[in-house]
Amino acid sequence: MDSKKILVGNNEIRSETSYNTSFTGLTGKYSINMVFNGAADYKLGKRDLRLHPENFIFLNSNTNYSSRIDSTTQVNSLSIFFDPYFVRDFEYSLNDERLLLDSPFNFKYESPVFVESIYPLQGGLKDNLINLGSLINSNSTNQLLLNDCLHNCLLNYYSIYNAEVVNRTASLKFHSYITKSEILRRLSIAKDYIISNYNKNIRLDDIAQMACLSVNHLLRTFKQAYQQSPHQFLTAIRLQQAKYYLKNTDYPVSEIVDMVGFECPSSFIRLFRNSFKVTPGQYR
Predict the structure, then answer these.
(1) Domain tally for the chain?
(2) 42 with 134, same domain?
(3) Residue 31, SS3 per DSSP
(4) For residue 6, what pLDDT is reported?
(5) Are 30 and 148 in the same domain?
(6) How many beta carbons lie within 10 A of that of residue 51, not counting itself?
(7) What is the pLDDT of residues 100-153, one digit of tens each?
(8) Interatomic CA distance for residues 66 and 43, integer angstroms
(9) What 3-state DSSP class applies to 252?
(10) Alpha carbon of 247 to those of 51, 87, 242, 279: distances in Å?
(11) What CATH code is carried by the domain that includes residue 189?
(12) pLDDT tens for residues 211-240?
């Protein structure tokens, strides 16, 4: 295992290249976790999550979890661990400008609690994490630059969080905000279950049971939040993973079809062409 880490204040950036590694009893800091290739497994209580490229997992500082990589090929992973004080200060910095000027160090914010979920790795966050990976692998000691990257990562995450949680919560058709928040939390569990098991034969009953929702309640609220049914969401995830394999590996198309969970190559090609306006071969 090739492991590198850099401390930035009380924050930590960790880069690893490994076939087999595991960590248990992780807690105390917020974290953003991603893999550049392969997969990593996370266990949060009764939840089992699998992290693939093009996604990341955000975890709260009070969450006790474990992570594991068990692969026949090397997996490159990157994790950022944010000190709760750093995140609280970041939250405070988003406050009213007059308050910041009058009391720059006198804040009594509690540590924020986010919806723990698998999020799409995109935009500025993806660029910043790739940049951080390069900096740590080059053994950079530029604390100003590293702190700037960490600050930008939180800015990027808040933007994704607003789109994936705040806005989706608002789209749910319930009067009570508490009810909306709880439904979105359960839907996030359903979504994560789909993403973690996208290449398997997933049953709607299993998804509903994981989310503690009835099948019809799941179908109705999932479409409100994500503008598509669970089946459509699963198909989209499979197609996105197929794009990743086409771009980053030499696996033949017929093998990729099986790897991402499609049963019929012809239907995969048709769905791929309808979604991305090119055939898998043309995309590659």
Answers:
(1) 3
(2) yes
(3) strand
(4) 83
(5) yes
(6) 24
(7) 555 555 656 678 899 999 999 998 999 999 999 888 888 888 888 888 999 999
(8) 5
(9) coil
(10) 19, 36, 9, 13
(11) 1.10.10
(12) 999 999 999 999 999 999 999 999 999 999
